[in-house]
């Protein structure tokens, strides 16, 4: 088939885009399985483990107070997650109940983050910062995306230019 008419070309490309599930899903397909919601999963796992180690009562009210105090120490992407959840003072919305109720019944953090993703997709768009260390979190080539590699390359170039 030859697409000489621009309208036919646009129609052909649109059909190709829709019929290909990899293209239709967008950037999420570039990430490795399990890399979705990495900040949410890691943060809520640390929060849940801190509740267990300190022997905190798993009531909804207690968990909410503990989450708010846990978010006071959060920095960077974790602070942004707390903002999306409504656990910061300047948050516009408050969906803490969507975290505290599942945590109170010991629901896995992966499932909690999946539910949060349905409510607010920004929660799972947060990614950990790229590390330059020898054993940094992004040293595993299989987990690194093209954007991460570009950021890392820019940092390395910046370091080389300074010397």
Q: What does this 3D model show about the protein?
A:
Residues 36-129 form the ARMET N-terminal domain. InterPro entries: ARMET-like, ARMET_N. Residues 1-24 form the signal peptide. This is Cerebral dopamine neurotrophic factor isoform X2. This protein is mainly α and 163 residues long. Residues 21-33 have low confidence and may be disordered. The protein has 3 domains: 1-30, no CATH class; 38-125, Orthogonal Bundle (NK-Lysin), CATH 1.10.225.10; 131-163. It is elongated and about 70 Å long. It has 9 helices and no strands. It has helices spanning 6-19, 21-25, 38-54, 60-72, 77-85, 97-104, 109-119, 122-125, 146-162.
Can you give keywords for this protein?
163 residues, mainly alpha, NK-Lysin, elongated, signal, ARMET-like, ARMET_N
């Amino acid at each position: 088939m030859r697409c000489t008419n621009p309208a036919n070309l646009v129609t052909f490309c649109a059909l190709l885009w829709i019929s290909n599930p990899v293209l239709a899903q967008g950037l999420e397909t570039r990430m490795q399985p399990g890399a979705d919601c990495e900040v949410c999963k890691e943060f809520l796992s640390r929060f849940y483990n801190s509740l267990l180690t300190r022997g905190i009562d798993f009531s909804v009210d207690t968990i909410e107070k503990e989450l708010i105090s846990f978010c006071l120490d959060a920095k960077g992407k974790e602070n942004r997650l707390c903002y999306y959840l409504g656990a910061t003072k300047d948050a516009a919305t408050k969906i803490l109940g969507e975290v505290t109720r599942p945590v109170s019944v010991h629901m896995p953090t992966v499932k909690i983050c999946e539910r949060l993703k349905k409510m607010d997709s920004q929660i799972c768009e947060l990614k950990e910062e790229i590390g330059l260390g020898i054993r940094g979190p992004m040293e595993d080539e299989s987990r690194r995306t093209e954007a991460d590699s570009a950021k890392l390359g820019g940092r390395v170039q910046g370091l080389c230019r300074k010397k």
